Every structure is written in structure tokens, then in C-alpha cells.
Amino acid sequence: MIFNFMSISSLQHFHMPAEWELHEATWISWPHNITDWPGKMSAIHLVYGEIVRKLSVGEIVRILVKEKSHEVKAKRVLERVGIELSQVEFFRIPTNRGWTRDFGPIFVTYSKTRTDIRIARFQFNAWARYPDWQKDNRVPERLASILKLPISTVESSSRGVVLEGGSIDVNGAGTLLTTEECLLDEEIQVRNPGFSKRNYEDVFRDELGISNVLWLGKGIAGDDTHGHVDDLCRFVNRNTVVLCEETNVQDENYHVLNENRERLESMKTEGGTSIQVVDLPMPAPLFFEGRRLPASYANFYISNAAVLVPTFNDPNDRIALGILSELFPDRSVVGIHAVDLVWGFGTIHCLTQQQPALPTRS
Fold first, then answer.
1. How would you class 207 by CB atoms within 10 Å of its CB: exposed for 0-12, middle for 13-18, buried for 19 or more?
2. Which residues are catalytic?
3. Which domains does the chain have, with CATH numbers?
4. Do residues 340 and 40 touch, judged by C-beta distance below 8 A?
5. Residue 114 has pLDDT above 60, yes or no
6. Is-contact 89 103, C-beta < 8 A?
7. At what angle do helices 68-80 and 41-55 cross, to 10 degrees?
């Protein structure tokens, strides 16, 4: 397969920062697609308000809204929950859905001093599952224009490379986590037909500065993205991950999670250090209309001031919050009620996308 990557020169020292590195802002898209949360939109708006309230303590929150009336409604909700709107910026850009992690811009620094930033422009096709994605797919270009940032389009044989932000997680030093189920599937939800591990690894190296890719197997049950890693396993520092653990041998996640743990036991970081694995419990299964939902504490988001963790009215909520509090002693670890949110088949990490802060030029 011939690759034609239209990008800034690879000599520019690309670097995809870890989520815990300093942010300039967090991006979200204000919810409006009622098919994601049937009968729940009022409750979802309040959950979003709580998320914005916690994020705005430590950084700007940049919110995509589809039109002026949508912005007015969002402001009304935010004011009701006591948010200082000076910490919030609105951008009138129409979207199909609200899953900003997957269609939003992936920001990458470049130059030796990492004092420049660009957008790595991957394509979005609604997880190769839904027919309406065209508005979401245009968001990176529109934001690059507004923010006056360079954007590089990743192409293979004149075709854009599809990649969602929730399918990868990085340690900020050159190592990336992903799953075979999501990226290599050739039957169910096919992102890039014919792509191999080597093809993806070349893309990650050339576009994100990744030298080491850790391939896990399958994702958790109920995940309609077909294996996103951000519901499964996450870096919490350069050498440590949290991995979901299921102790019920009858649960369909039990063998999947054990198999991923076995893989991690032999994996190393870019520097040759063994990966330290911390177990993160799973909540009891949740269902909507007979279908399992992807409830997972691993879908947390690391902001400047806090770690926002989805909770599910489950006894393991407290345990998960305690584990993450020990791993992030410099941040408040906050539970966000996500029983309604997960009806849309995603929670907090799926909704957010970080924009890294840049160091001051010397």
C-alpha cells in the first residue's frame, strides 16, 4: 500500500501530549441529538452543566453550538448551575452529535521546543456505524480556520485515514495504547479497509510522534464503537495504566479483560520500562431496552484541576474514586453521575477533547 501523508515535515518533532499535561482549554459539543438520549435531554443538559462547572475551575471550556438559539439555551443551563461564563467560550459550528473526543481536533505540538501547535486531521465516519457524520467530520477544518492553526491531512492512496480520539491513549513520551478490535476489524465496523498494524504504526509515528504502539485485544461489552481503548485501559502516568477488571467469571467481560491483562504483563514503554497495571473495578452491568451499555470508570477525563470520573450508583463507585485519587494526588477526583449519560453509549472522556497549552517562547 502506498502512503501519501500530506503533513508538515517529520523533522518538526511532532509530539502528542498526555492528557495530564497542562491544557489551554477543553472542548465539548453541547448536546442536541435527541436520538442519543431519548427522553433524557433535560437531564443530560444538567449533567453537561456539572461537567463544565468542574472543568472551568482550572481552564477555559470551549463549547460547540449549532446556532445562536442553541448557545442561548446552553448559557441558560450553565448560569443555573452557577458557572462563571467568563471561563466559557462558544463556537457556532453545527455537529451531528456531541462526542467531541472522536470527531474533534487532535492537537499535536511540533518544533524542538514544542512551542508550536497544529491539528492532525484524521477523518471521522461515525464509527463506521451511523449514516450521519458529515457535519462532525468538518469540525477540525473549521476550528483550524478559526484558531488560525496549521492542519495536516493524513491520507492513504488519496483517501483520508479514519481515526477517532477515543481509540487511542498516549503517555506523552512516545507510547500509544489501542485495540485490535477497533482498528483492525475487517467485518463489522471497518475504519480503514486493508490497514495493517504496520500501516497504523507508520501513521502514529509520522503524525503523532509515536515510537511504541501497545496493541490490546478486544474492548468491553456494550461499546458500540467496537473496542475503544478509553473504556478499557488508560495511562495515568508515563509508565502506569489502569485496566478494567471484572471479577464475575460469568460476565462477558471477564475473559476479555484477563486476556488484555496478560498482554500488558509483557509490554514495555518506549524506554523499555515494564508497564505497571492498576486494576480498576467494573460497575454492575447496565442495560437500555435490553442492550448492554458501556459503563466503565476508565472513561474518566483528566483536566487541569480535576479528574472527572463517571459514576453509576454502584458500590464500586467509591472504590474506583479511591483508586484514582491515589493515582492523581495533585488533582481533585470528582464523580459525575453518568447513569443517564451512558444511555448515549459513552460518558465523560467521550464528550471531551483537550487542547494542550504551549510553553512560553524564550
1. buried
2. 350
3. 10-356 (3.75.10.10)
4. yes
5. no
6. no
7. 70
